[in-house]
Amino acid sequence: MDPNNQSKLRLSRVSHQYPGASGEPLVVLKDISLDIANGEFVTIVGGSGSGKTTLLRIVDRLIPPSSGQVLIDGKVVERPGGQISFVFQQDCLMPWRRVLGNATYGLDLRGVAKSDAQERARKYLDLVGLSGFERYYPHQLSGGMRQRVNLARALAVEPDILLMDEPFAALDAQTRELMQIELLRIWKQTGKTILFVTHQLDEAVFLADRVVALSARPGSIREVLDIDIPRPRDIEIKRTTHFQDYVSRLWHLIEADVRRSFRAETAAEA
Ligand SMILES: Nc1ncnc2c1ncn2[C@@H]1O[C@H](COP(=O)(O)OP(=O)(O)OP(=O)(O)O)[C@@H](O)[C@H]1O
Ligand SMILES: [Mg+2]
After folding, report:
1. Which domains does the chain have, with CATH numbers?
2. Which of 55, 76, 93, 248 is the most buried (most CB within 10 A)?
3. pLDDT tens digits for range 93-112
4. Which residues are in the CB-under-5-Å shell of ion ligand 2?
């Protein structure tokens, strides 16, 4: 990145520890420093428990880091408010609200007048391909459609930064691929800065300008991989050796950590 260009989002030596079950601190993130440019798409991979969700929650100010700083446009922001939206793995839709009511939810919380909120929600429902479904209830939608509503709700508050925590993990393989294409289209149209967590390495490579590989707990940055694949990207590129080389490089980077955290989790369950 050009050093004269101010980062949209800067993580500066972010570390975090939780109070462990028996009182001793559990260190989950260690010394994470990362600069993300305006409009950049960065994905994060790492084994289960490496602190990916914790990192996104820190960026969203849901929890303060134990040490280090998060800067947006060069400033420490106490409450990011409308600058950041979070898209969770579960769609979190309210079953009693229609699609339109779910899409306006973030705007309702911010006190936006009903007609303005609805107008904006309709614009983003249209962007995610759900025009005509405004009056449906969540139970009348497929999983992919519900995640689109979720995305429309996050976009409706017009944030600069989208944080996405395994948003497609609950979808079947084909829907997931379609949603990846859709997300790239929406990203291109809106110019958002995206920080996206996934366990699926081919998803991480396909979407990203850069992939951040985290070590096992405490999560630290093992490597940041630049993805030099031209855009627009088509699903077909996933079959190329150039693409597969990135996926295997990533797997080699995190394999030992993933196996270690898998063994730790299965031992804890026994
Ligand atoms: N509120 C909390 N209190 C105490 N420990 C927590 C809390 N939240 C998470 N942890 C612990 O912190 C570690 C990191 O959790 P986190 O959810 O950030 O990992 P993750 O990388 O998102 O994992 P996964 O891939 O399974 O979603 C885990 O060991 C978890 O048990
Ligand atoms: Mg997580």
Report:
1. 9-89+161-269 (3.40.50.300)
2. 55
3. 999 999 999 999 999 999 99
4. 53
